[in-house]
Write a structure and sequence with these properties.
There is one protein chain. This protein has 217 residues and is α/β, with parallel strands linked by helices. It has 2 domains: 3-106, no CATH class; 132-213, no CATH class. Helices cover 44% and strands 17% of the residues. It has helices spanning 29-50, 108-118, 120-129, 134-148, 151-156, 162-173, 175-178, 198-213, and strands spanning 3-4, 7-12, 15-19, 59-65, 71-75, 81-84, 92-95, 98-101. Helix 1 (29-50) packs across helix 2, helix 1 crosses helix 3 and helix 4 runs parallel beside helix 8 (198-213). The longest helix is centred in the N-terminal third of the chain and has 22 residues, at 29-50. The radius of gyration is 20 Å and the shape is elongated.
């Protein structure tokens, strides 16, 4: 799903490498790692839009590929994906069994990533969407609400009904409803009698997010 020079994943002998042209101007492994982690968080959120049961990935080190083909490895302690700092100009999906040419049409994941590069609110929303928690789901909604100009705009656009949105926001903010998982610790936030479940909240926020993304270009 990632096949562009800006961002692509290759597989080599069971190891997966995230490559990006954004790494080319960086001068140290730590800089590449910091930028790579930020990219992965956005990608994890975008991937969850493609597949609800997507399992997050993370980095476990940096591999720098020199012009002569030699490699320098920088190993860190956590994660599950490796990045390397040099990207090929050829847009292909490369596997141990050979190369498969990429199609011209970008995948949804690539399209959303490109939107995130152009629009900080998109990057922020995908960053928060990667985590299935009440707090992060509320943050996704807040990013969208602030971007369009308020709660009433979200409702007036037909992205969600006002009663459903109120059920979500009031449940998410209520410590009485969610305990430590609530957005606020104050007891003043009371949930509605008819609360919303976490699975319903995920579906509601996903629907709003998808409709909002279609307005970006």
């Amino acid at each position: 799903m990632l096949r562009s020079p800006e961002l692509n994943v290759t597989e080599d002998n069971g190891f997966y490498y995230l490559q990006s042209s954004e790494f080319d101007s960086l001068t140290s492994a730590d800089e590449v790692r910091e930028r790579g982690i930020a990219l992965i968080k956005i990608l994890n959120g975008a991937a969850k839009l493609c597949r609800d049961n997507f399992r997050d990935v993370a980095e476990d080190g940096i591999t720098r590929v020199e012009d002569d083909g030699s490699r320098h490895h920088y190993v860190y302690l956590e994660g599950a994906i490796t990045m390397r700092a040099k990207v090929s100009a050829q847009v292909t999906v490369i596997t141990s069994n050979g190369s498969q040419p990429a199609v011209d049409q970008p995948s949804p994941l690539e399209s959303w990533f490109r939107l995130a590069q152009k629009h900080k609110p998109v990057a922020d929303a995908l960053h928060f969407y990667r985590e299935d928690s009440w707090i992060n789901l509320y943050k996704v909604y807040e990013v969208i609400k602030d971007d369009v100009g308020g709660k009433h705009i979200v409702v007036n656009k037909g992205w969600v009904s006002e009663p459903d949105l109120s059920r979500f926001t009031q449940t998410a903010q209520s410590r009485a409803a969610l305990g430590d998982y609530a957005r606020h610790a104050s007891e003043k936030y009371k949930p509605r009698a008819q609360q919303i479940s976490l699975s319903e909240a995920k579906s509601l926020v996903k629907s709003i997010l998808m409709k909002w993304l279609t307005t970006k270009s």
